[in-house]
Amino acid sequence: MEHHDWFKKSIPLIASENITSPAVDEACASDFSHRYAEGWSGQRVYAGCTYIDQIEDICMELAKEYYKCIHADVRPVSGVVANLVMYNAFTSDNNGKMCCMSIVRGGHISHGPRFAKSGREIYGTAGTTRGINVEYLAFDNDEMNLDIDASAKIIREFEPELVLFGGSVFLFPHPVKELGEVAKEVGAYVGYDAAHVSGLIGSGYFQDPLREGADAMTMSTHKTLPGPQHGTLVSNREDLIDTLRSCAFPALLSNHHLHNVAGLAITFAEMLEFGKDYHKNVIENAKALGQALHERGLKVLMEHKGFTESHQIVVDITEFEKTIGLGGDIERLLEKANIIINRNLLPYDISQGRHYQNPGGLRIGTSEITRLGMGKSEMVDIAELIKKLVIDKESPNKIKDEVIDFRKEFQEIHYCFQKSSKAYEYLKFY
């Protein structure tokens, strides 16, 4: 309860988090939370799955409608597990090869380190090492995106089995079409980790990987897609469906957290109904917050491109190193005032001797505050509160009181079904 009370009095700006609706919360607290349903719907290892199968079928159909695809697997228990399913399907057993974005330039930890093991090694012969040999794509620091020409050269020389797009710092669409064509030249599959932007994509924003050449798209389901922590994999390749299914179960999954599948079904239904408006406002709020922070003297990256096309912005705070500190220091300072953000590596941090524990950047997201009903005017208010702490050096205790007062008007969750809605009738496990 202390955690709940704290967050009701805070400004949550973590780009990899969101808030679930009361309907999703109820589903996640259902009897499903302690049941088993190994295998594919209709082909279970366990009895007692009659209604579990119905809900999982609904969830898959809603996912296929949202992403306009022919295959959706909602069994992965996280985005990382969804990635491992894709790695298993698209790379060979012994020292497979993958190109992706490096962690220090925004790639996810499941995209590296240089030798990124998949779940496949647990089935290997004792004493052998199986995994994926990773070669990083080229990155343009000035554009905060992949360098197309330099990355194409890497793909042609390395000849990977999988070229993976997506990342954790994800301001602009990746060149899936351009580099996907190069991947096909060398016989590689094309994957897309949509963990951060899956909601934006499903609602018709950011980009459309499956139409741009991706063979599969993976995601976690609790970021711009405001569901429970879980994972999903989607594809439009009918010839790959059996392989993708078997690379999930039994290769990587036993039971797959059925209560979260129920919650995810409601999330997809909510986003099919409200996602267009919600995600439009998420992106507009991110741009507005970037502009407001910029106007108050903070160095928000990518001003020349409108700061972002997604839910997140990145701030370079290295100018405060000698007065306040770097990312870890400022993260802790803001947290004392109930402003919750996370430190983040800048593309050039490692070359300048900085560490991920105290990097030169902050990553700020607008998904959760938008779902709490905040709009562009509130982005100005939030920027002013951050300025008071970082630039004006006002007391965190004083600003904390202002944050608590600010949050009083934003307690209701928006863009979701109420208990009287048709979604409650449609999802009949209530």
Topology:
Layout: H1 2-8, E1 11-12, H2 22-28, E2 39-40, E3 43-44, H3 50-67, E4 71-73, H4 79-90, E5 96-100, E6 115-116, E7 132-136, E8 139-140, E9 145-146, H5 148-158, E10 162-166, H6 176-185, E11 189-193, H7 198-202, H8 209-212, E12 216-220, E13 231-235, H9 241-248, H10 258-295, E14 299-300, E15 312-316, H11 327-336, E16 339-340, E17 342-344, E18 361-365, H12 367-371, H13 376-390, H14 396-407, H15 422-426
Parallel strand pairs: 1-16, 5-7, 5-10, 10-11, 11-12
Antiparallel strand pairs: 2-3, 4-13, 6-7, 8-9, 12-13, 14-15, 15-18, 17-18
Helix pairs in contact: 2-10, 3-10, 4-9, 5-6, 10-13
Beta-strand content: 5-15%
Q: What's the structural domain tally?
A: 2
Main sheet specs: 8 strands, mixed
* Number of alpha- plus pi-helical segments: 15
Report the span from N to C terminus.
25 Å
So, the CATH homologous superfamily of the largest domain? Type I PLP-dependent aspartate aminotransferase-like (Major domain)
Known CATH architecture of the largest domain: 3-Layer(aba) Sandwich
For the biggest β-sheet, the strand order reads: 4-13-12-11-10-5-7-6
Parts with pLDDT < 50 across at least 5 consecutive residues: 113-129
Q: Which CATH top level class of the largest domain fits?
A: Alpha Beta
What percentage of residues falls in helices of 4 or more residues?
A: 25-40%
Rg, rounded, reads 22 Å
- Shape verdict: globular
Structural class: alpha/beta
Rounded mean pLDDT is 91
What CATH calls the topology of the largest domain is Aspartate Aminotransferase, domain 2
Query: How many strands?
Result: 18
